[in-house]
Write a structure and sequence with these properties.
The protein is an all-alpha fold and 205 residues long. 80% of the residues lie in helices and 0% in strands. It is built from 8 helices and no strands. Helix 1 runs antiparallel to helix 2. The radius of gyration is 17 Å and the shape is elongated.
């Protein structure tokens, strides 16, 4: 069951990331927000699947990863469910829009970045639990650990006020950054699927 959960969640996350990347090219904010929710719904069970097959001495890192992934999913749910409901259907005042509307680079945009910061922390800690035996597993471990570096940018950008509503070219810059993230995360999903598909025996001690 742990293997199957890992395989299925890898595929769900992969499909959601692909949909997210395509939606940005197509300029569909609604699909972008919806696919972002599916990324989080695939990512949490993926991290839990990694945690379920880790060695006993690495359990603390695995549990830390699960905890960080849960915080990520909660923040993402708050941000994007608000975009799909309150922002999409309501006539918000200018002040409310500056706070709630993700595209205004306001409070909910910063919550979103914080969420992806927790996601990056989660991948870093779960990467510590993997004991690679194959070349593909070494790549997977490396991608997970390096992805943790994204947490630094996700924390610093809001604190430094780099993005704001009046920033020229902010939408284009943001799109390019997110497309780069998608290009990075897609192979991570595929390698995760391969990891669970080929490891047929649980290694919990």
């Amino acid at each position: 069951m742990n293997r199957k959960m890992g395989m299925y969640s890898s595929l769900i996350t992969f499909a959601a990331v692909v949909a997210f990347a395509a939606s940005m090219f197509a300029g569909s904010e609604y699909i972008s927000y919806l696919s972002s929710l599916f990324i989080s719904w695939g990512f949490v069970p993926l991290i839990c699947s990694f945690a379920s097959v880790c060695q006993k001495e690495k359990r603390a890192a695995a549990l830390t990863a699960v905890a960080f992934s849960s915080v990520y999913a909660l923040l993402i749910a708050v941000v994007y469910f608000a975009q799909l409901t309150a922002v999409h259907f309501s006539q918000l005042s200018q002040q409310a829009s500056l706070i709630l509307n993700y595209s205004k680079f306001g409070l909910f945009f910063f919550y979103d970045l914080m969420g992806y910061g927790f996601m990056a922390f989660s991948t870093f800690f779960i990467g510590l639990t993997i004991k690679p035996q194959k070349k593909s597993e070494k790549w997977l471990k490396g991608l997970l650990l390096i992805h943790g570096v994204f947490a630094i940018a996700c924390i610093l950008i809001p604190l430094l006020g780099i993005f704001n509503a009046d920033m020229p070219g902010g939408d284009l810059i943001g799109t390019l950054i997110l497309e780069f993230w998608c290009a990075y995360f897609i192979p991570l999903c595929l390698l995760s699927f391969k990891y669970f598909k080929e490891n047929t025996i649980s290694i919990i001690e």
